[in-house]
Design a protein that fits this description.
Length: 228
């Protein structure tokens, strides 16, 4: 039994409680009251992105030697941070499954399934935690993706705040999402002889799924916010 599973369970419960109480903490504006579930869900996702993205960035800033060994070593607390993220993705998976129709959420459910499997292996084996931490850098961009959704639901699409967030969102998308995924794919290719075949297969399949999904999302953002 891995102690990491306790962190996963605690994280699941904590994000579930946060989701339930968010409507009191951040009441939805009139334009979002028709979809209260989505309002709570986005704010919960924003809280996770701030925690995990900020934690991953701090880890690499405080430990610049980390990229030298992404398999066996990791900063103190990194394992717990990855376990917390597994708990969040499980909670969000259940939340979407219970509150949204499958044809509306299948892409995110598929994405979450891949992340849960990959991060779950890191939590259980205490290996590849550094690699998972690289993946969590993507959450820095997710902060602005979630803010974009919040501004849309609040009917603030024609404001300076939305335009500024759109520009930052696009910039962080390129730096922390596309570039990060490209770096991870490159790392897997260079270290294919040092990674067990099963782990290499999981990582390769994960990258093969995530890369096109993120390119499609990038195109949708460009079309929606800049090419209208």
């Amino acid at each position: 039994f891995s102690p990491g599973l306790l962190v996963v369970a605690g994280s699941f419960a904590a994000f579930r409680l946060l989701n339930r109480g968010l409507e009191r903490l951040v009441p939805p504006p009139p334009s979002a009251r028709r979809n209260r579930w989505k309002w709570r869900n986005i704010w919960t996702s924003l809280a996770h992105s701030v925690l995990s993205g900020g934690g991953a960035l701090a880890g690499f800033y405080l430990h610049p030697e980390l990229p030298e060994d992404l398999v066996g070593t990791h900063p103190p607390g990194a394992h717990s941070l990855v376990a917390v993220s597994v708990g969040y993705f499980l909670e969000d998976f259940v939340d979407m499954l219970c509150n949204q129709k499958l044809h509306q959420s299948w892409e995110l459910l598929f994405h979450h399934s891949v992340v849960i499997v990959c991060f779950g292996i890191a939590v259980l084996l205490h290996q590849y935690v550094g690699f998972a931490l690289v993946a969590l850098l993507v959450e820095i961009n997710s902060i602005f993706l979630h803010l974009r959704q919040i501004l849309l639901m609040a009917n603030l699409v024609h404001t300076t705040c939305y335009r500024l967030n759109s520009i930052i969102n696009l910039g962080t998308y390129v730096v922390f999402r596309i570039a990060t995924l490209a770096w991870m794919t490159h790392w897997l290719f260079l270290n294919r002889e040092n990674v067990p075949p099963a782990m290499y297969a999981v990582g390769t399949v994960g990258m093969a799924i995530m890369t096109p999904m993120n390119i499609i999302l990038f195109y949708r953002l460009l079309r929606s916010d800049f090419f209208k």
